[in-house]
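Quick log. Single chain, no ligands specified.
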Amino acid sequence: MKLEKSVVEELRVRPGHEAALAKRATMSELGKAKGGPPKRSKKAAAEAELHDFVEELEAAQELLYASATHAVLMVVQGLDAAGKDGTIKHVLSGVNPQGCEVTSFKQPSSLEQRHDFLWRVSEALPEKGRIGIFNRSHYEDVLVVRVHPELLGDAVTGPPKKSAKASSARAGPAKNSAQMAKEFWDERYEDINAFERHLDRNGTRVVKFFLHLSAGEQRQRLLERLDDPSKHWKFSASDLAERRYWEQYQAAYEAAITATSTPWAPWHVIPADDKHTARALIAGILVHAIDDLGLSMPRVSAEQRKQIKEARAQLLAE
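-> predicted structure:
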């Protein structure tokens, strides 16, 4: 059972169009319209579909691994408590661990800060035949740092001018801070698009997911972390601190997704208030992404077939 193509298209942000996050639902109806017993819960329906999609993903990943001609990069972004860790755990639950690798990107180290912002993700790209999962990614550098530009120092607005005489008449009027900031972020989006285009041209399919969570659901999940001792380890004071910037993060995601959803690396906005449905949707979209590569099992040569026949005869003769 494949996820309906119309659902994939509905969740995909069409290149050249606005992400329109404010108009997109944070709760999906997947599983509700599929029927089943009348008393079947939405959770049970979503889990059943996730099970089916995970089985399909297992077969698709085996084909990807055997062909070894392409790689898949799965990018997962979302605010605190959006369900990134759980999504990765459940969606990849049926995949051979030898065929995938998860990389979590946190605050850049001093070494990473001495390189360009794409350097650290370049180091973690999957090799052909494998699925690479980025739990957060290079998009942190157009999200967190856009909400907190102080992390970049004077990189956005530029260093202070030494004197007014330094400006040449041929350079035109001086740019204000807002203009310089816009150019800075636009250039970062261009860098990301070029980087992902390069990956696609060289055999790495980039599939990006934004877990679209409502403010009310985030509040509830943070409260659960505080009320359940077994979840205390997940809580960080920064979670509440960043929640104060909810509107700023929504604006940053809107701008980034709109600018970087491309034909070669599309964004999918996943309704994330129901984590079970979100997982099923992502698994289904991943299956489509691998299927679209048009892969096939490696061909066996005449010499290999001869060796197989001889090996079989030898084993039967024992």
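The longest strand covers residues 204-212.
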